[in-house]
Amino acid sequence: LVRQAKPAEALTVARQALDLASRVPDGRNIRIALHQSRAAAEYAAKDVAAAAQSLEEAATLAESTAAPFEAIRLKVMAGQRLAEAGKTDRALTLANQALTLADARSAELTQTRWMILIDAAITYFRAGHCEKTPALLREAAQLTAGKMPPQWKGNRLAVKCICLARAGKSTEAKVIAAQALAAAGATWAPNSGFRKKIEAIQRQGRE
């Protein structure tokens, strides 16, 4: 329903499903997934604060039942939405917690830790802390030897590009903007936030 641009209907279905899942003794994992579905519907309806709350609820549920990667990544996903909603202090707290947990569970996250690093970098830049992003982006690139799926590579370059633009380095930002668009390709929808920002930087040299 979200993909069909019917967020209101999707939200109604998600709420109904969550109500049913709450009555199931072993329904915690189902509730985690449904909170994420509700968040997607809320975000599509442009209720960013509600989407952030739903993701944080999913992250809280995941702490005791989900695999380490899912539980940790949900924290930074919630952090991204919280930053968009203007709740930067809470967003930073979740990003910091996620990175601490990722370090502690690094042996279990050898194949996936790089995703958490990129998601944390996105949270930091959205919260206005670009200074925290370069080390995370470099480590993510090192862990994957630069070989990551197109959307992830595009996202990594987008964070770098936007932070360069914010620092007034418009020439460098334009170069990285072209790389980000080429890397992401069709994985960024025409109306995606990253695509709009990066194309604006290409045109103007500043965010």
Secondary structure tally: strands: 0
State the helical fraction: over 70%
| Secondary-structure element pattern, one letter each | HHHHHHHHHH
Distance between the termini: 32 Å
The DSSP helix count reads: 10
Largest sheet: none
- Extract low-pLDDT stretches: none
Shape field: globular
What's the mean pLDDT score?
87
Please report which band the strand proportion falls in: under 5%, 5-15%, 15-25%, 25-35%, 35-45% or over 45%: under 5%
Secondary-structure-based class equals mainly alpha
Rounded to an integer, what's the Rg over CA atoms? 17 Å
Summarize, please.
By secondary structure, the chain is an all-alpha fold. The chain contains 10 helices and no strands.
Topology:
Elements: H1 7-21, H2 28-44, H3 48-65, H4 68-84, H5 88-104, H6 113-126, H7 133-144, H8 150-166, H9 170-184, H10 193-204
Helix pairs in contact: 1-2, 2-3, 3-4, 4-5, 4-6, 5-6, 6-7, 6-8, 8-9, 8-10, 9-10
Structural write-up:
This protein is mainly α and about 210 residues long. Helix content is about 75%, strand content about 0%. It is built from ten helices and no strands. The chain has helices at about 5-20, 30-45, 50-65, 70-85, 90-105, 115-125, 135-145, 150-165, 170-185, 195-205. The protein is globular and about 55 Å long.
